[in-house]
Every structure is written in C-alpha cells, then in structure tokens.
Specification:
Residues 36-199 form the SET domain. The protein is an alpha+beta fold and 357 residues long. It has 12 helices and 10 strands. 35% of the residues are buried.
C-alpha cells in the first residue's frame, strides 16, 4: 500500500491504496455538478457531534451538496487495527486536517483517527487490481469534510422527527469527477436535519438497531425503530422483508416473460409491483430497487398498450430518476413524449403473446 496526493481545485487530498488505484481516481480538474446555493449548515446534533441541516426549503431531487473526498483508503474490515490512519490525516493541509479531525468518533476506545474513519467514511466502488474488496462492491472508503457530517439517527426530543431508517436524502458517487453528491429524496423544509442510511434498511428493526449499536454505538430512535407496540414492529419488519425478497423466489416472471405468456393474467405482474411499490412508500425506502420496480410496472402498462396508466407510472419513473441517476433517463423521456411511436415494447403482449402449448 502506498500514499498518493490527489489535487483538487481547492485543496489537496490523500489516498492510501494500491498503486493502480491512482489510474482510477483522476486528478480532479473536471467541473463538478452544480448544487443548490446556501442549502445547508453544519450545526451541533445532540449525541452525534455535528450534523447537517437545511438552511432553506429543498425541493425533491434537489442537489444539496457536491464534494470531493479528502481521504480515500481501502475498505476496513470489522476487526484489526490500521496503524496508518494517523498518517492519512498527517498528509493533509493543516486547515483541512483540522476540519477532518473534528468529525465525530463514535468509538472512543479506538485510536482517534481510526475511529473517525470507521464512523464517517462512505463506501466507494473503486475496483483495484490488487484488492478483491468486500461483497457489497465498496472496495474503498472516502472521508468528506461536509458530506461525512450526515447522520443516521434523529432524536425524538428534536424539533422535527426524521425517518432515518427511511432517510430523507441519498448520497451518490461520481467516478468521473471523484465526487460525492447529496440528493433530497423528498421536499425538505428549512431546519430539517439531513439524514442518510448507514446500514441495510430492509433488515428487521432489531437487526438494524443491533448493527447500529455495534458499529456506531447508538440506539436508533427514528419513527421506524421507535414503534408503539409489537404489532407495529411485526408489520414494519414484514413489509421490509417483502421489499428485500420481492421477486427472488422465482415465482414472479420478468415483464418480457409475462408478456409472452397469455396463460398469466394481465394483472399478474401489475398487481404484484403495485403492492411492492406501496410497501416501499409505506416504509419510506426510495432506493434503486424502488426505481427498478417503478420501471417494470410502467413497462407492463406499455406492453398492455394502456396509455393513461403508462404515462402515470412513467412520469413517476422520471421523478425518481431526478433523485437516483440512471443511464435510461433519456429513453424514458422519449417514451413519455409518444409511447405508441417511441416505445418499442408498446402493445407487445397483445401483439406477440401466446398461450403455452
């Protein structure tokens, strides 16, 4: 492992990685995406060090922040000590180093620099030739001066309660500019704490709480964890389990398979996708799977040739694509303009569907 400097427009960062990783991380002179101006402030957050709060109303899909990391290092295993963490911070410019070292350390039993990285680093999917990486594909971790201030937990004693096992923002990584961005999942009012997910939010409530306690040393008190009774907990757990397992059992065909098989009812997929989308919205989980299921539902209506329903769901797809980047956005925009002409799948089930022999 070797250290490398990375030069950004307003500071110099540091990378601890295999030699070939410098070919993946650019010396970022590219222009970053544009964020809303004066969108947030960093303020104390009870029990969590500092947090990020909106300083104005933010529309859904609003870009709150775009930022380069100051430190990039290999993904950290749950065990073992990385003695080189302190050297990572020592390599930063003094002003940047002071701000990075002011990040919250949720595990004071660890060396301070290591605790800061473990508490605040974001997963980065940088594939290195000499690093297989963890199973989630996040081979490296990045520390950001402001983005790393986003919290998961929110206190019930605070003015506004955040659903942080259903975060109000999404963080995205752009490899081309070596930058992270923060996108609003829904409209945010001035003064709301900006929250993201730290863990797999489709796990059960007890597993989520246990993981947060083990990794970050706090008990989540968001409205999806601090539920009123055992019945509410069981209902939420069941909804999240359905979201997680939807389509994995093999009993639900893909839209193309369903469209060709007229022995399956027209509503076979439509009803299933609507049910799962409703659960996503009930649990406030606006993730990549939510977008995928919206796309599949709209495609089902295209294959049925039902224009009004297609337009309704296709426009929902485009709204979510404003939050979660997608290479398919231009295609969906073209389909919405004139689906009968531009959508190659239009009326496919009625034109090509067959009963199995």
């Amino acid at each position: 492992m070797v250290y490398h400097k990375i030069n950004f427009s307003d500071f110099t960062g540091i990378v601890l990685a295999g030699r070939d990783i410098t070919e993946i991380i650019p010396c970022c002179q590219k222009t970053l995406a544009t964020a809303l101006g004066n969108a947030y402030i960093i303020s104390p957050a009870a029990g969590k060090g500092s947090g990020m709060f909106t300083s104005r109303d933010i529309p859904a899909a609003g870009v709150i922040l775009v930022e380069n990391p100051v430190i990039v290092c290999p993904a950290i295993s749950s065990n073992g000590t990385q003695e080189s963490f302190g050297l990572l911070f020592d390599g930063l410019h003094p002003d940047v180093r002071a701000k990075a070292l002011s990040l919250h350390n949720s595990d004071p039993l660890r060396p301070y620099a290591e605790g800061i990285v473990r508490t605040n680093a974001f997963g980065l999917p940088l594939e290195s030739l000499d690093s297989a990486g963890p199973t989630d594909g996040m081979t490296h971790r990045g520390i950001f001066l402001d983005l790393s201030r986003c919290n998961h937990r929110h206190e019930r004693t605070s003015l506004i309660l955040q659903n942080t096992c259903a975060p109000n923002c999404t963080h995205l990584w752009d490899q081309s500019t070596c930058s992270g961005s923060l996108i609003a999942n829904r409209p945010l009012g001035k003064g709301e704490e900006i929250t993201i997910d730290y863990i797999n939010i489709t796990d059960s409530r007890d597993i989520r709480r246990a993981n947060l306690r083990d990794m970050y040393h706090f008990d989540c008190e968001c409205s999806h964890c601090d539920l009123p009774n055992a019945v509410a907990i069981a209902e939420s757990d069941a909804a999240r389990a359905t979201i997680s397992q939807f389509g994995k059992s093999g009993g639900l065909p893909l839209p193309g398979t369903w469209a060709m098989d007229l022995s399956l009812p027209d509503g076979h997929l439509v009803d299933a996708y609507k049910m799962c989308i409703l659960l996503h919205e009930q649990e406030h989980i606006i993730d990549a799977k939510y977008l995928e299921r919206l796309e599949h539902l709209a495609i089902c209506y295209a294959m049925l040739g039902e224009e009004d329903s297609f337009q309704t769901w296709a426009n929902r797809v485009l709204q979510v694509m404003d939050i979660r980047s997608s290479e398919n956005k231009a295609m969906w925009k073209r389909w919405v303009v004139d689906p009968k002409v531009n959508c190659e799948l239009w009326n496919w089930r009625k034109l090509h569907g067959r009963f199995p022999k």
